[in-house]
Write a structure and sequence with these properties.
It contains ten helices and 14 strands. The strands form two sheets. Strands 1, 4, 5, 6, 9, 10, 11, 12, 13 and 14 form a ten-stranded mixed β-sheet that branches. A four-stranded mixed β-sheet has the order 3-2-7-8. α2 links the parallel β4 and β5. The longest helix is centred in the middle third of the chain and has 17 residues. It is globular.
Length: 302
Amino acid sequence: MDSSRPILCLGEAIVDLICEQPLGPGELPDRLVPHPGGALANVAVAVARSGAPAALAGGVGTDHWGRWLAEGLEREGVSTEWLARLGEADTPIGVVLLDAEAEPRFQIYGEHIGPTMAAAAERLGEAVAGSQALVVGSNTMVGAVEREVTRRALELAAAEGVPVLFDPNFRPNRWRRTEEARRYNAEILARAAVVKCNRLEAELMTGEADPRAAARALARSGPRLAVVTDGPGGIVAAGAAEAAHRPPAAEVVSPLGAGDAFMGGLAAGLARLEWDFSRAGETLDEAARRASAVCAHWGAQG
């Protein structure tokens, strides 16, 4: 695999309007601060910060917010060659509120992931063929248009021999039914080389509450490597590599984007190992440090 090719992240770039303080029951924010976001945009930024080439395939509007997001990605070293710009679409905005336990809640406005993904599909074959790996999530399986684009990307990756990395990034409010999310996650899982998820997502997909048992069940579902994170409880890997890592305690201002940063660090680490999944344990510390760095700041990209 040509290491000069980017790790391609397929998905959304959105604006996160974040209330930079936890809110109690019934409290309203007095101020919302814009930060760049979008799960796969966050992954792409983490890949680039980890020293590997990264690209985002998706789309933004040509409005002020879309230009701001695209310029920010380029400053981070993320290629926007395959990022579509749509004049007829507003760039999506997400309002992010954190509860008293600092757990984020999302509400997306201007849901234009479908049109931007459809526009990005025009060069999807070129993008996948020109990349060393493909990272996908479940957000692009919610709507019918983006679901077909994601399926096409998976088919192209299989044809080109490009490994697929999957992060479910489950957001309950984006799905009508949990069973629907579980079914579409399973569809990607069967075609992925690597799956990374948190403990709750792993339990959703496997029924196993124990992270190691869940990781092993995930690895039996198709991926060669499964990694399950459990916050301060540590990280476990199963499949091609049986490994565990407990990162040191870190300052947490906000957990927003930690999982995305972990995935970016994991992908970059595997790329440096030339996709030798049996050595995946060597990547866990760096991936955890990427997640910790994001947690020390407001905003999903730190």
